[in-house]
Specification:
single chain; alpha+beta; UDP-n-acetylglucosamine1-carboxyvinyl-transferase, Chain; 2 domains; 4-stranded mixed β-sheet; 14 helices; 25% strand; binds uridine-diphosphate-N-acetylglucosamine
Length: 417
Amino acid sequence: MYNIHITGGRRLCGSTSIHGAKNSVLPILAATVLAEGTSVIKGCPRLNDVDCSLKILEALGCKTKREGDTVTVDASTVAKSTISDALMHKMRSSITFLGAVTARCGEAKMSFPGGCELGPRPIDLHIKALRQIGICVKETCGTVSAKLGDFRGGRVHLDFPSVGATENLMMAAVRCRGETILTNAAKEPEICDLQNFLNKMGAKICGAGTDEIRIIGVPRLSGAMHRVIPDRIVAATYLCAGAITGGDILLRSVEASHIEAVLAALKDAGAVLAVNHDTVRLTASMRPRPINLLRTMPYPGFPTDAQALLTALLSVADGTSVIEETIFENRFKHCSALCRMGADITTRGSLAIIRGVPALSGAKVEACELRGGAALVLAGLRAEGETIVSGTSHIDRGYDTFLEDMQSLGAQIRRIE
Ligand code: UD1
């Protein structure tokens, strides 16, 4: 365990690049289990959740190897369809293995992922969708068991465009005997990345990125090589770090079209942005402009994963901003820590009212979840004096080289064991 020590007040300047997307690599690693061969996934960040996915793949009988940012998964030897409670509890998104393992093995058994730092995380939409394409799913005493029934595909409408439910359904439907039409599907870039990987494996999917995805089942899938897309939330984090310090930074290996809502919010907050082929340059002044109302929405709306980052930025704006969180009910935990650093934020239900202050001051604060933790680091970069952030294992779940990247941009930030 370590804490992050930050001496704030340094303006970030320089350039850095963005690693592969956690939320792409996790479902893609789950999808490798569908292949009767070897897949090579490039651009895999070094994150605990990636290690956990590899452990799950090994427990299922796959052979895995990591060399640098490349992970190789040989799924020709899959022998098990059960995932232990210990592995399921390490990572909520392990539920994305449900569709893939059932489609590959004919059955799957794993524990219910349960709640997490962001509040209840139900999987009712995953289960309902899988049942509609002919998978029998039973829930007993915290365990989910699935078995292929009349596995013909069908029409599925999601009541909410859940990212995980869309991914689970895609990974199951690729092997069914007929066609599946999914409506009100999630449109996140990670869904397109999964479609691209599955199609390289021999699947027949189209429509990812729109609200209707069509999948024609195929009898078998082979291994494929794929590079995951850049992490749009890491890009958002670094841009907000540049903005909160009044900096001038250039991000390389960014897909700007994936972060349009974040770029629009940063522009509203007064940052100057220059977007090129795969780079974004941000220049900002010390006092952002307030934003009247910023509402988190499913993609292409403003991402809930960037909400805490904008909250930190707007805490030093020249006026009052309001943020509405519509995706998760418990996603304002970082606000009390920001207030300890001098921010003036009131939360009421799904709203955060942020009265901008001219300065933050360093304090000892604890990260309670991944993006909220990153937001505290950003506040520390801006604050006068020293900030110590504990609970850093949450932050490590989503950032491979956060501290090194901030240091390369000129931040005074270090790990203290
Ligand atoms: C994914 C992302 C996460 C991001 C979220 C929303 C991964 C690994 N994680 O999470 O970083 O914050 O999308 O963009 O990709 N819901 C239900 N029933 C369900 C499923 C979801 O009620 O069966 C609700 C959730 O409680 C939540 C909302 O739907 O309120 C969104 O969840 P979902 O889109 O499924 O998020 P995840 O896939 O878990």
